[in-house]
Amino acid sequence: MNDRIETYKVKIANYLNADPGNIFLHWKGRVSLYSILKSMNVGKGDEVILPGYTCVVVPNAIMYLGAKPVYVDIEKGSFNMDYNQIEGKITKKTKVIICQNTYGLSTDVEKIVKLAKKYKLYTIEDCTHGFGGSYNGKPNGSYCDAAFYSTQWNKPFSTGIGGFALITNPVLLDGMYEIKKQLIVPSFMDQLVLKVLLFTKRYILSDLLYWPMIYTYRWLSKKNLILGSSSGGEISGNLMPYDYLKGISMTQVNEGLSTLARFDELQDLRKKNSDKYTLLLKENKKIYVHEIWNKNHSFLKYTILVKNRENFIKLAEKNRISLGDWFTSPLHPARESDLVIWNYKMKNFPVAVEVAKCAVNLPTDTKYIDKTLDFVRNNLDEIY
Q1: Can you tell me the distance from the alpha carbon of 34 to that of 58, in angstroms, rounded to the nearest whole number?
Q2: How far is CA 358 from CA 80, 232, 263, 322, in A?
Q3: Is 90 exceeded by the pLDDT of residue 211?
Q4: Ramachandran angles phi, psi of 175, nearest 5°
Q5: 66-to-30, 42, 252, 280 alpha-carbon distances in Å
Q6: Under a CB-based contact definition with an 8 Å cutoff, are residues 13 and 262 in contact?
Q7: SS3 of residue 60 by DSSP
Q8: What pairing do the DSSP bridges indicate for beta strands 146-150 and 122-126?
């Protein structure tokens, strides 16, 4: 068992040019973030700066420790934090800045790290979308004091659910090892349910069943009736679930080793498909991922902006296109009416709010790219 875990860590470390001993495996990526923050002694009264366009589990991890999330609006082109707004958010209570590689794109990481050092702050790279990608020639996660990654269903490589942390600042290692001792061991039932879900995704999920199964899975996980990416409590409030602090299981380790064996092929497919989307959108004078981003983009998702997302998703469902809907709100997938729970005031983040109303994600890992390209071509009037 320990040999398999160590092999998994070595495989991950090889992609990150890192020491396997600096990698910590968890049940979910949000547990990795929580562990990093705790190792940085983030607590009551502290402030953590983060993008105002992210998953709700990120501010949750901050608030579980009694700290306050402080949001920064995003740039419309990159969907990442607007660097020019960060320094104005720093106060005497600020302890950490989180920079995110949204949809697989990293921007301004070196500048953010330099700014953080000026104010003697920690930095964390949110690589939940960015494993396997790079920023200015170095693997995503290399620049900050620590980074966290996700291996959930639709992430760069998947273990069903899962995640891990990379520590680059040795000062944090003792704290991470201490937290590791406190991790809950996944139960037999946890692993059994996960195995069933992995089997279903691999052998049953198809274009025909994609949308019905997505809707069913989300409803069941929201009601806490099935093992989901986020429980109902995590997307409707900020109270820490009783079984939140959980370690990795062998089911996840084995799945990770299997999917990593095909990872390079998958990344190559994502890049090639994204080039085709870019060409089509550019030729038709639509908003596209600009070429200036290409060298730092791993294209987990190819995000476009549409005029009526609800209608566009219905069209995709009708045409059996596996469209993604990250992010349906600035703190995905929490309802906009609930965002005040996480100290989020929509009027302060106009770009994030606007993007969240019209963003959809074209699949980049599909082997049936022509079908998706035809769908886009036939619905160009729906796209900005």
Answers
A1: 9
A2: 16, 24, 30, 17
A3: no
A4: -65, -40
A5: 16, 8, 30, 47
A6: no
A7: helix
A8: parallel
Question: Average pLDDT for residues 293-308, to the nearest whole number?
Answer: 97
Whether 33 has a pLDDT exceeding 90, the answer reads: yes
Strand partners, 55: 332
Tell me the pLDDT tens digit for each residue of 197-210: 888 877 766 555 56
Res 148: pLDDT: 98
Say whether 206 sits in a helix, a strand or coil: coil
Strand pairing category for 359-362 and 163-167: unpaired
Q: Is 64 left (phi over 0), alpha (psi -120 to 50) or beta?
A: alpha
- Residue 180 CB contacts under 8 Å (≥ 6 apart), including other chains: 24, 35, 247
DSSP-based three-state secondary structure for 146 = strand
Amino acid identity for residue 168 in this structure: T
Residue 143 burial class via C-beta count within 10 angstroms: exposed 0-12, middle 13-18, buried 19 and up: buried
Nearest Cα to Cα of residue 98 among 156, 57, 155, 152: 57
Q: Going from the N-terminus, what domains does the chain have, and what CATH number goes with each?
A: 2-180 (3.40.640.10), 188-244 (no CATH), 263-382 (3.90.1150.10)
pLDDT tens-digit series, residues 249-274: 999 999 999 999 999 999 999 999 99
- Burial per residue of 8-25, b for 16 or more beta-carbon CB atoms within 10 angstroms, e otherwise: bbebbbebbebebebbbb
Instruction: Indicate the pairing of strand 68-72 with strand 163-167.
Output: unpaired
Measured CA to CA, the distance from residue 282 to residue 288 in angstroms comes to 6
